[in-house]
Design a protein that fits this description.
The protein has 355 residues and is an alpha/beta fold. The chain has helices at 25-30, 44-56, 59-80, 100-112, 122-136, 154-163, 171-175, 196-207, 232-240, 250-260, 263-266, 268-275, 279-296, 299-322, 337-347, and strands at residues 5-8, 18-21, 37-38, 91-94, 116-119, 143-148, 168-169, 216-219, 224-225, 228-229, 242-247, 327-331. It has a 5-stranded parallel β-sheet with strand order 1-5-4-2-3. Helix 13 packs antiparallel against helix 14 (299-322).
Amino acid sequence: MSSSVIYTRLPWAETYSEIIDVRSPSEFIEDHIPGAINLPVLNDAERAEVGTIYKQVCSFTARKIGAALVSRNIYHHLSQHFAAKDPDYHPLVYCGRGGQRSSSMASVITQIGWKVTLLDGGYKTYRNYIRQQIEHLPEKFTYQMLCGLTGTGKTHILEKISQRGVQVLDLESLANHRGSLLGGQWPGKQISQPSQKYFESLLIQHLQQFNPQQVVWIESESIKIGQIYLPQSLWQKMRQASCVEIQLPIAARVKFLLQEYPHLITHPDVLKRKLEKLKNRCGWEKLSQWYQLIDAGNWESLVKDILHSYYDPIYNHSTKSYFSKAHRFLSIPDLSDCSIENVLDSLLPNYMAVK
């Protein structure tokens, strides 16, 4: 006896055994419901082939060829992915618009006897939901900015804050980017940022886990992290937030950066090419000085001068422009666990709840 298909437009209101996205791999990579797996009923090449036949030959021929391809792919998924599923298995299935691709998968699964929920309207329904959430959800929270010059360990300190059970929104982690010129692609350390749409999906997923009655800590960022733009609703709330600024001696900052970016030393030629992008701001004379320090292996002097000449002026300008609300300054001697824990002991009790 086959089960019936259940339709929903609120997939986030229930827990499923699995969320299955049956769209093509390229559609899935661009964006999907976080936690979903990709079991395409048509891959990218097959989808393009069927679409071409539909437009250039006839719709009937396209449907015949498409049905054959879909059947073959579903057979593969049944013999591999679904083979060990128990009788209580209950997946949510969706495609682009809730049409033939997800219905084809659901009809087969229900014939086996599993209960299946289809997302009515498919990914389009989900994306409309995310747009609505992006516009309104960030405004429900009170944010506390953690500011500080490059090398003051803001991300590291936020990790320590999070370990204490405090709400932390790590935008650099969601955007998969360190937020600076030196935080991008390096040999042996390739970084792939999510699409703008998937970043927004991840952002909403994280915000929905937070309590609006408690402060959300967040690192001071520009509106753009790598190739990702922050939504205006979040950016405006960040600009209105008060800041706690970490102050660290220059020697400690240099030491921390060399520990965090060891590839600066192991790939000097790549470092030179990256620094060349700063020629319009710093000039060729300064670049020449940096190149000489690289060739001499004088890494401490190099990092110190880059901070003084480039990063610190940018930070001071952006902080005054974007985060002008009242600051609290906290000076620490270094970024040892002991120093950070001492600072957090005095800091966090004053910033735990929305006032």
